[in-house]
Amino acid sequence: MTIGVCWGILGGALPGITGSIAMALLLPLTFGLDASVALMMLAGVWAGAGYGGSIPAILIKTPGTPSAAATIFDGYELHRQGKSGKALGISLVTGTIGGLVSVVALVALLIPLSKVTLAFGPPEYFAVALFGLVIISSLSEGAMLKGLISGFFGLGIAVVGVDPLSAAQRFTFDRLELYEGFSLVAVLIGLFAVSEMLTQAGRLYQWKRITGEQSSTDMPTLQELRGVGRATAIGSVVGLVVGVMPGAGATVASFVAYNEAKRWSKHPELFGKGSLEGVAAPETANNSVQGGDLVPALAFGIPGSNSAAIMLAALILHGIRPGPALFEKNADVVYSLFSGLVIVNFIMLIVGFLILRLCMMVVNVPVPYLVMGVLALVIVGSYSIKNSIFDPLVTITFGAIGYLMIKYGFSPAAAVLGLILGNIVEKSMRQSLIMSNVGWGIFVERPIALAFIILSVLTLFYPFILQWWAKWRAARSATLSTE
Amino acid sequence: MNDHAGVGPRTNIVLSLGLLVGCALGWLSTDTFGASLQVDPLGPAYYPRFVILCTAALSAAMLVASIRGLRSNAAGQEPAPREPLPASVAAIDDAGTQAVAETEETLPPVFYPRLLSVLALSLAYVLLLEGLGYFVSTVLYIVALLLLVRVRNPIRIGSCALGTPLVFQSLFQKLLGIPLPGGLLDKLPFNLPF
């Protein structure tokens, strides 16, 4: 399990190597192991990757895994303020808490959660994706129009490729490499990491810590850990619920958790400027997804994510058939997995603290070497996705696009969210309209879908409602005082 | 942190018009996507057009808002001042060392020739990656990149140029089993340890 966790942290920290790739690379090594041991090793990789992705996200604005993209908003800001240790520490501790909560929920609520899985159909997925899109507006305060345009740009990028229903080529320009569309990892690394490195190369500056602030290797205090309790709780719940929905994934969970933590925070104005809650929420969510992901996998044999699919593959390789009969015929394996999931989270906590000081060495690297190292890393990371130079070209191109987006006030983060949600939005919308014979009423006839649509409308207009309310109260106070 | 600090209404008007032209071109491209099928009454072009329409509507809204902003400025209202950036920035001086400024009101100006050179160099590196091989192309890339970002110490340049591809190649190829192109090194009559 320790080997699995270390491997997962390494894989998660390397851009281009996601958690599922790290698991897949280790899968052949599990052939000779007992089924329970194999599953626990893979669970360790899964958990480790969840934390590993946040390390480069915080230190060099390069998400190691797509699910760490939301951690950049506040994690990288904390790093620039000289609080890298706090950001990494919060990420580690809250990630562990998220993982543990998801295991407890998995054990206690497997049957009811499996019913939730069945309740979600295409209209519900569309409504949830719409809710996710609305979050885009909250990611770009003060520039909502540009934020929404960025989000739709992301949706547009997701359109590129072969249409899954009719096999029509859309914006592929007859390039074979574009048949599957743009790689999410390549675009993500470009929009975040390469754009930042281009900015650094253009100016060659480095943020220095303001005199008197704490050393950047300081870990979060107990008070700070208590302070992110609400965000951690929100991240746990969001991760679990989103994880239960097959196909939604840790990336969606982390963005939704970030938004909800901001909404319910006592200091929402600090989000995006180095808020510890802004790190806690997405990191908790992307680890608590693990338990939810396993619900459809164990209950129905339907993997909700690539990582869950690899866990199922490991079961099948050991002659164990996943599905409803799993608990009757191989209960020992299942309960070993549950206990293993608890242990790997504690191992991740210990290993994470041990390697933290090592990671902090990046903090004081002079800018020229940082630019060199990051660019070399992201190019080889992008190349490793499909062993093709196309993905590094995509990364660099989107790096230039990301630079221009930042320069002219658009939001690369919103574009990334649009790209992530694009396939879910299109697939669920088209499936729903086919089911209803092109009747849009289907989205309001189903209660869960309707609830999310109402939530989306409220979220979109919430700032305007607040403003109107504040003006009304001010006018009323002025009237009362003159009387 | 945002380096754009203060995009004016004129720039936003140009951006809006550019986006609208892009949307128009995108819409015309969707004509080639094919017709709908019996099993798919919406067709492959429905959703892309939905996205394009929404983007066009938002761009039009941005255009209107920018024109109104321009008129407000023309009527004598002062545009928002460029925000001074925090005093927590140290600029690298021409010697390539980290300057420690006591006070710094703004970031150093962007040196676009260097930025564009880094971009062009990175593109060239990727295009030569498979031909020259990972190790050789990375060595050349790092040497050129460090010279571009004003590193002049030959020992540091040499160690980074040789050490970085060695480390990454070991990590990706040996540890993770992801093959990287050998290129020129594959043509050598003997095998290298990495």
Description:
The complex is a heterodimer of chains A (483) and B (194). Chain A is an all-alpha fold and 483 residues long. Chain A has helices spanning 2-13, 19-26, 35-52, 54-60, 72-80, 84-119, 122-139, 144-159, 184-203, 222-227, 229-244, 249-264, 276-300, 306-317, 326-329, 331-359, 367-386, 390-407, 412-435, 442-445, 447-482; strands spanning 161-162, 169-170, 205-207. Chain A is built from 21 helices and three strands. Chain A has a two-stranded antiparallel ribbon. The model of chain A is unreliable at 208-215 (pLDDT under 50). The model of chain B is unreliable at 1-5 and 81-105 (pLDDT under 50). In chain B, helix 3 (112-132) packs antiparallel against helix 4 (134-148) and helix 4 (134-148) packs antiparallel against helix 5. Chain B is mainly α and 194 residues long. Classes of the chains: A mainly alpha (483), B mainly alpha (194). The interface between A and B is large, with 70 and 82 residues. Strand 3 (205-207) of chain A pairs antiparallel with strand 1 (89-91) of chain B, so a sheet runs across the interface.
